[in-house]
Design a protein that fits this description.
Layout lengths: L4 H13 L1 H14 L1 H14 L1 H9 L18 E5 L8 E5 H12 L1
């Protein structure tokens, strides 16, 4: 099934408005499909070794208290500029982090 742009926008808006319901659904699915979840997780680790290694090596790197792009102090995440340099990270809010990844995809 191919989703249209309109469907994707609707789903994104709905998910943003129902964050807690989505979180509960994903948790319930994970518990009911534990074997499938483990298979998906294992496949991700095989296909994205550099990301997994970078995540592990950067666990002890302390994040700043604000987004390095917009200055926000809400919903901060670590962003790897390069996976071959796992300790070279930036502290970004979820919005700026998403923008940075969309720039690399296009």
């Amino acid at each position: 099934m191919v989703k249209t742009q309109k469907q994707k926008e609707y789903n994104k808006k709905w998910n943003a408005e129902h964050v807690e319901a989505c979180r509960k659904y994903r948790k319930k699915w994970r518990l009911n499909n534990l074997k499938k979840h483990c298979e998906i997780n294992a496949r991700y680790k095989i296909n994205n070794k550099d990301k997994v290694i970078a995540r592990e090596l950067s666990r002890n790197v302390i994040m700043k208290d604000h987004c390095e792009i917009c200055g926000s102090k809400e919903k901060l995440e670590k962003h790897h500029w390069r996976y071959d340099k796992p300790k070279f990270i930036a502290t970004l809010c979820t919005t700026c982090h998403g923008i940075q990844h969309s720039k690399t995809i296009k």
